[in-house]
C-alpha cells in the first residue's frame, strides 16, 4: 500500500492510499479507516462488498469511469453510501478510437504492420473495402454514439442508421433515421455498439441476433463486453456470419485487462480462441485513455470528493484507491 498526503487550498488533508488489489468482497476489509474508496470498471462492488465497506465506515464509493454497471446501487442506497462517477470525459476519445479500430480491421492495418516487421511486403490477403456508401448502424446515440454517427456520415459519406430507446435530436438533425434494433442489424454493413450495460442490453448480440447480420458485416464494440455473447462471436466468425470483429472490451476482461500477462498462460480459452482469428482485432479497453484524461479524471474525482465531504466526510478525509499499477500515475501526476 502506498500513502500520499494531499493538501488542498482549504488546508484540509486527504490521504490517498493505493492498492494493487481489485475491490471485491474479499478485499473490502482493507478499506478500514478510510472514508471513501475509488474503484474502476472491473472492480466487483456487489451487495456483499458494499456491506463490508459499510462495516468499515466507508461513506463514499467514487468511480474513475463513467459506467457504473458493476455497482449495486440499491445496496449502496440501503447502506447509506454515496456513489459518484465521472459524469463525462471526452466523448471524442472513444468515438475517434472506434473509427480507428474499424479502419484497422477493415484495411487489415494490424496484419500489414506485423508482416512488415518480418520483412514480408506481400499484399496477399490484405484486401479491404470502401467505407463510402456503406450502411453504418449505430446502437446507442448518446455523446459517443452521436459523434461516431457524425464521423461516418459527414466524414466518410456513409449512410448511417441508428437504434436507441431514446432518440437524440442532434442525430435526427443530421437526417439519420432510427430503426428497430433487429432492422438495423439486417440493413447495416457495419454495426457499432455504444449503449450502456444494463439487464436489457446484456448479450444483445447473441446466437440469435447475430444471424440477422448481413453476411460479411463488421461489428465494432467499444462500449461494454457484456453487450456481446463471446460464444456467439466465435460461432459467427467461424461460420462467416461476420466478416470482421473489432473490440476494445470483453465480457470477462476483469481477469485479463490492465495487467501484463505476457509471461503467463492465459487460461481463458474462449478469449484465446476468439482473438486467434485473423479477422478479429482486440485491444485492452484503452479507447478512453488520453494524456489529457490522465489529468482530467483525477481532478473530477477530487472535486466530487471535496463536494461530498461537506455533507458526508470528515474534514481530513482518507481515500483508498483500488486498482492495478497502470493507473497509479494518474494520482502521482496530479498530486506530486
From TrEMBL:
Database matches in CDD domains: LDH_like_2
Presence of the UniProt keyword Cytoplasm in the record: no
Keyword NAD: yes
GO molecular function: NAD binding; oxidoreductase activity, acting on the CH-OH group of donors, NAD or NADP as acceptor
Location of the D-isomer specific 2-hydroxyacid dehydrogenase NAD-binding domain: 99-287
Signal peptide: none
UniProt xrefs under SUPFAM superfamilies: Formate/glycerate dehydrogenase catalytic domain-like, NAD(P)-binding Rossmann-fold domains
Keyword terms of this UniProt record: NAD, Oxidoreductase
Superkingdom assignment: Eukaryota
Family: Belongs to the D-isomer specific 2-hydroxyacid dehydrogenase family.
PANTHER family tied to this protein: 2-HYDROXYACID DEHYDROGENASE HOMOLOG 1-RELATED
Protein name, entry field: D-isomer specific 2-hydroxyacid dehydrogenase NAD-binding domain-containing protein
Organism listed in the record: Torulaspora delbrueckii (Yeast)
Source lineage: Eukaryota, Fungi, Dikarya, Ascomycota, Saccharomycotina
Amino acid at each position: 500500500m502506498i500513502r500520499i498526503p494531499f493538501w488542498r487550498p482549504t488546508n484540509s488533508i486527504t490521504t490517498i492510499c493505493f492498492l494493487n488489489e481489485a475491490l471485491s468482497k474479499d478485499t473490502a476489509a482493507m478499506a478500514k479507516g478510510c472514508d471513501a474508496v475509488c474503484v474502476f470498471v472491473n472492480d466487483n462492488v456487489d451487495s456483499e462488498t458494499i456491506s463490508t465497506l459499510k462495516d468499515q465506515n466507508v461513506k463514499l464509493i467514487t468511480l474513475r469511469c463513467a459506467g457504473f454497471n458493476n455497482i449495486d446501487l440499491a445496496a449502496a442506497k440501503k447502506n447509506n453510501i454515496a456513489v459518484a462517477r465521472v459524469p463525462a470525459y471526452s466523448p471524442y476519445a472513444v468515438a475517434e478510437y472506434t473509427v480507428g479500430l474499424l479502419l484497422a480491421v477493415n484495411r487489415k492495418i494490424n496484419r500489414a504492420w506485423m508482416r512488415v516487421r518480418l520483412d514480408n511486403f506481400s499484399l496477399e490477403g490484405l484486401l479491404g473495402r470502401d467505407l463510402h456508401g456503406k450502411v453504418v448502424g449505430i446502437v446507442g446515440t448518446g455523446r459517443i454514439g452521436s459523434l461516431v454517427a457524425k464521423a461516418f456520415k459527414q466524414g466518410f459519406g456513409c449512410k448511417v442508421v441508428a437504434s436507441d430507446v431514446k432518440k437524440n435530436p442532434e442525430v435526427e438533425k443530421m437526417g439519420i433515421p432510427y430503426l428497430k434494433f433487429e432492422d438495423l442489424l439486417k440493413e447495416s454493413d457495419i454495426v457499432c455498439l455504444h449503449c450502456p450495460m444494463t439487464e436489457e442490453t446484456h448479450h444483445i448480440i447473441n446466437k440469435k441476433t447475430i444471424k440477422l447480420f448481413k453476411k460479411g458485416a463488421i461489428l465494432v464494440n467499444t462500449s461494454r463486453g457484456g453487450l456481446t455473447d463471446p460464444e456467439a462471436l466465435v460461432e459467427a466468425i467461424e461460420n462467416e456470419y461476420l466478416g470482421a470483429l473489432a473490440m476494445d472490451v470483453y465480457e470477462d476482461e476483469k481477469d485479463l485487462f490492465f495487467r501484463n500477462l505476457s509471461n503467463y498462460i492465459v487460461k481463458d480459452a474462449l478469449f484465446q480462441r476468439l482473438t486467434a482469428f485473423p479477422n478479429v482485432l482486440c485491444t485492452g479497453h484503452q479507447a478512453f485513455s488520453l494524456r489529457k484524461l490522465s489529468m482530467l479524471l483525477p481532478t473530477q474525482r477530487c472535486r466530487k470528493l471535496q463536494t461530498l465531504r461537506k455533507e458526508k466526510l470528515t474534514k481530513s478525509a482518507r481515500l483508498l484507491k483500488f486498482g492495478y499499477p497502470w493507473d497509479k500515475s494518474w494520482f502521482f501526476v496530479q498530486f506530486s
